[in-house]
Amino acid sequence: MKKIMPKGLYGATAENMSSGRDNIFVVKEMLDAGIRVLQYRDKNKTKLEKFKQCEIIRKITLDYNAFFVVNDDIDIAIAVQSDGLHVGQTDLPIEYARNIVGQNMVIGLSTQNHQQAEEATIKGADYIGVGPIFTTSTKTNIGKPLGLSYLDYCMKNMSIPKTAIGGIKISNLKQIIKYNPENICIISEITSANNINLTVKKIINIINQGCKM
Q1: 163 near 127, Cβ under 8 Å?
Q2: Does the reported pTM lie above 0.90?
């Protein structure tokens, strides 16, 4: 049975931006602070290194009843039985990914324009990444930031859940909240924080307060 992805803050790993702390440590800190959607993303490790970390993180996320998403690596997602798989526009097409993972795994797709968002819905994505909204340093070769207009379009026209992503920080978080996306992904502000726990709690509080307005 397909697990429902919780709404709210969407965390993601970025070991290269974690001040020397490994993904396992950062994940525990994020989950302790209240994050309930967690994506494993690492472009620099070998397949085996990624698998070993995901194997541990899968167990940890189950302990916290958190939703675990694996980025790109469909084989690792299947091997550790993650709740979700996230793919990009240059990865395996979503309809083929669906044939491999089956109907019980949530699949998210990154989108950068109206056509990609519409195609994602037609081809069976369970949610879409919307961005980069602002300038981001966590990804390379992704083009210029799209701004808030693309998020506005997706919120008004796309029926599936949206995850706002790209350069989102505490300083611009309220600009995102006013559009009320189902999830907001914040990466570097969390992984690089001196105190991850306090930072996550502060962000969750801002989101919760904004949603009540």
Answers
A1: yes
A2: yes
